Amino acid sequence: MEITGKTKIMFVLADPIDHVRASAVMNAYFGSIGDDLAVSPIHVLPGDLGHVIASLRLMRNVFGFGVTIPHKTRVIEHLDEITPAARLIGAVNFVKRTAEGCLVGDNLDARGFIASLAQHEVAVRNRKVLQVGAGGAGRATAFGLAEAGARELIITNRDDGKAHALAAAVAAHYPATKVSAGRAEARSFDLIVNTTSLGMKPDDPLPVDIEGVGAGATVSDIIVNPAVTRLLARAAAQGAKVIGGNPMLDAQMALVARFIAR
Ligand SMILES: NC(=O)c1ccc[n+]([C@@H]2O[C@H](COP(=O)([O-])OP(=O)(O)OC[C@H]3O[C@@H](n4cnc5c(N)ncnc54)[C@H](OP(=O)(O)O)[C@@H]3O)[C@@H](O)[C@H]2O)c1
């Protein structure tokens, strides 16, 4: 890749930085569509976020930046505008810098997630979904699932209060979906989604008991690394359809390209 003064520059802001893959995925995507755009991860500590963003605002060849753990929520106070989707989810994962230097945040996680299911021919409309996790990504997937027409959505989380708060927020916005928080047996669901970080480390326990889940059900794990988590390996061995986190990230690339286009 040749980076010149004509190249559009983007960054991915993170702390820690080692796990970041979005920059590589973005560089590969923009290279594949012949766009002269280069992306670098930058290691930004939470206390420095405001200073870094104020500086990015002044850099005229910066077209935008991605934000990941732990900046997705705190970034909002440093932006000029956020989209309705980002407001609903309460988090931003991509920011565009307009030609005038305004910073606009969006959240593409939900649309990327639903697009990844559609690419694997997994229908959400009228389906019964068990979601594990109610963190930043879990908020996005829950709103995405309701928007996509899930008939029923049960949200389970270690911190039960967060699951209840998310269920209430989704139910208020999407009354057609029956949303609740609590525990449930995975075998009675069409789609089981892990949005927790359990599975990133090899010795993590499974985020959900999938005993009895087999053919006819889909298990999705949004963890990107490893590409096949223990949950997915177990689900595949039981005959379920499985989808990892990479398709969700990949699906966001076309959305980013459209979002940052000036
Ligand atoms: N594929 C993609 O495009 C994509 C996009 C975004 C995120 N992700 C991945 O999604 C995962 C979560 O990210 P996030 O931004 O939502 O993180 P987060 O906001 O920190 O949320 C973490 C979630 O995991 C749960 N959790 C963490 N440790 C746990 C444990 N020991 N036992 C039970 N539950 C535990 C948390 O439960 P509590 O609420 O109880 O703490 C919470 O629900 C990460 O692996 C991230 O890389 C993937």
TrEMBL record:
Keyword field: Amino-acid biosynthesis, Aromatic amino acid biosynthesis, NADP, Oxidoreductase
Reactions listed under catalytic activity: shikimate + NADP(+) = 3-dehydroshikimate + NADPH + H(+)
Record domain Shikimate dehydrogenase substrate binding N-terminal: where: 12-95
Gene Ontology CC: cytosol
Pathway as given in its UniProt record: Metabolic intermediate biosynthesis; chorismate biosynthesis; chorismate from D-erythrose 4-phosphate and phosphoenolpyruvate: step 4/7
Keyword Oxidoreductase recorded: yes
UniProt-recorded Gene Ontology molecular function terms: NADP binding; shikimate 3-dehydrogenase (NADP+) activity
Domain Quinate/shikimate 5-dehydrogenase/glutamyl-tRNA reductase: 117-197
GO biological process: aromatic amino acid family biosynthetic process; chorismate biosynthetic process; shikimate metabolic process
Keyword Calcium: no
EC number(s) from the headed UniProt entry: 1.1.1.25
Domain of life: Bacteria
PANTHER family recorded: BIFUNCTIONAL 3-DEHYDROQUINATE DEHYDRATASE_SHIKIMATE DEHYDROGENASE, CHLOROPLASTIC, SHIKIMATE DEHYDROGENASE
Protein name in the entry: shikimate dehydrogenase (NADP(+))
Protein source organism: Bradyrhizobium frederickii
